[in-house]
Amino acid sequence: MATVIDTLKDRPRHPEKASRPDTPMLRKPEWLRVRAPGSAGYNETRDVVRANGLTTVCEEAACPNIGECWSVGHATMMIMGEICTRACAFCNVATGRPDPLDPTEPARVAEAVAKMGLKHVVITSVDRDDLADGGAAHFAAVVLAIRAAAPATTIEILTPDFLRKDGAAEIVIDSAPDVFNHNLETVPRLYLTIRPGARYYNSLRLLERVKERDPTRFTKSGLMVGLGEAKEEVMQVMDDMRSAGVDFLTIGQYLQPTRKHAAVDRFVHPDEFAAYEAIARAKGFLMVSASPLTRSSHHAGEDFAKLQAARAALSSAA
Ligand code: SF4
């Protein structure tokens, strides 16, 4: 199990949450237990990450899948620093005032991707509300640098919402990643408590704009469950996503990083995930991954191959 780190370079990770009352942490059910990391493959991935000075969301978000993913060389890189300008109630990424962007980062990330010989890479970032374009140009520069250094690698990006950053999303879309992912995270009713700095409709429109600008681009979005949402609300979000043309839906269990974060309302049973998956497939998503340990970037490479195959099958049937 990944360890939750509560301090970052001698400062609290979440200063804005320090005065909040502790919330109880529920004991995890059997189906959420994972093996501790430490295989040879895990150590190799960790060494490449450290040698290239990279930040990963695997570590920053205390992802439970890190042992499995890193053992097969799959790490999701987090660009634009390790400090986020938002303060979402579910997220373990440190919050505060970020450092200036590092202009050497696109080349360093691209070099690491080429060195690791990745077939598929997932790049995400912190929110950079402090920058005029929300970091869009930097994000695009990373995508283009990877294309140049590793042309055979397919690229999936998991972006911030670029709220109130006119023209920013278009810059990122035009860098032509293979998959554009932006997570809606939860149902609209819970935005004010779980994702207070974001707006549901803005996030949905971002996904729709990707399709409007380039209908060939794959789009993907994800939800956490176990935060207090009702099944009907999840089904409504599925419909909203389909209206926005989203191809790939991921649904996973919310896990509470610390006692200062939003409490887990309940652990959703694996059978309920299977039911969500069946409903989502019936609603027309090309791909659905729904399980307690599903995360946006979990098995992203294999899932991208399935996504391509699903689109090809659909067009040959048309
Ligand atoms: S699921 Fe994603 S964030 Fe978690 S360890 Fe795997 S690659 Fe990293």
Structure report:
This protein has 318 residues and is an alpha/beta fold. Helix content is 36%, strand content 14%. The chain contains 11 helices and 11 strands. It has helices spanning 40-51, 57-60, 66-71, 105-116, 136-149, 168-173, 191-194, 200-213, 231-243, 270-282, 300-317; strands spanning 7-8, 11-12, 77-79, 83-84, 94-95, 120-125, 154-158, 179-181, 218-225, 248-253, 287-290. It has a 7-stranded parallel sheet with strand order 3-6-7-8-9-10-11, sandwiched between helices. Strands 1-2 form a two-stranded antiparallel ribbon. Strand 6, helix 5 and strand 7 form a beta-alpha-beta unit. Helix 4 (105-116) packs parallel to helix 5 (136-149). Iron/sulfur cluster is lined by residues 57-58, 61, 63, 65-66, 69, 74-76, 295, 297-298.
Structural class: alpha/beta
Report how far the terminal alpha carbons are from each other. Answer: 45 Å
Low-confidence stretches: 1-6
Largest sheet: 7 strands, parallel
Kindly estimate the percentage of residues that lie in beta strands according to DSSP. Answer: 5-15%
The Rg value, from CA coordinates, equals: 18 Å
Kindly report the average pLDDT value.
93
